[in-house]
Amino acid sequence: MKRIFLIVLVIMAVQQLLHAQHISYRNQQEVGLVSYGPMPLEIGFAARSFHGVAIGDAHTLGVNVGVNRFPIEGKSTIWTVPLTIKNRYVLSPRRKAAFFTDLDVGYALASLNKERKAVPVWSTYDGGVVMNPQIGLKLASPSQNFFWTITGGYLYQRLAITTYSNYDPNFNSRDPSTVDWIGDFNRERNRYAVHRLTFMLGFGF
Fold first, then answer.
1. Partner of 177 at 20 to 30 A CA spacing, among 62, 64, 112, 185?
2. Over the stretch 76-92, which tens digit does the pLDDT of each residue have?
3. Domains of the chain, with CATH numbers?
4. What is the DSSP string of the chain?
5. Does the pLDDT value for residue 183 go beyond 90?
């Protein structure tokens, strides 16, 4: 009963907050770099699309959908599709140039990576939790209806790569169509905690 009572109180408080504030739709598109070093093999790509609501002048809350492409240990290139909840707070929101903070928290899918089935190695990919705090500068038009953003932040991403292998010379000569892709292979699962810097440019309204 206590948990239900607390949930009801939270819902009522959120409803009161939303009713007390002016709410308007917000949309933003961003592209940029995901990197852990200056070398080309250490730099990846990111794109994001945000849809949400502005609660009052300073707060924006909504859903961010995107795609990330980045190298892992200089060997594999991984694609992820982050689905996150974004919370933005703008300092001095009525100014044409204002600093802001972002926090994205959610889950990133790894479904864009194709399973590699080839003797003697087969690899599969799994996504995981993603978090991306950022700070940035918002440059608004005179009417405040359109704006540009420049942001920098930190990306934390969990993912896993499962590799099935069998390097027996006799096995390697087999036709892949005759292989038991589970029973005939040794399984190795590598989990990664990816740490990257993000640099994004965007626009919105």
1. 112
2. 788 999 999 999 999 98
3. 2-204 (2.40.160.20)
4. -HHHHHHHHHHHHHHHHHHHS-EEEEEEEEEEEEESSSSGGGEEEEEEEEEEEEETTTEEEEEEEEEEEEEETTTEEEEEEEEEEEEEEESSTTSSEEEEEEEEEEEEE-TTSPPEEETTEEEEEE-EEEEEEEEEEEEE-TTSS-EEEEEEEEEEEEEEEEEEE---HHHHTS-GGG--TTTTSEEEEEEEEEEEEEEEEEEE-
5. no
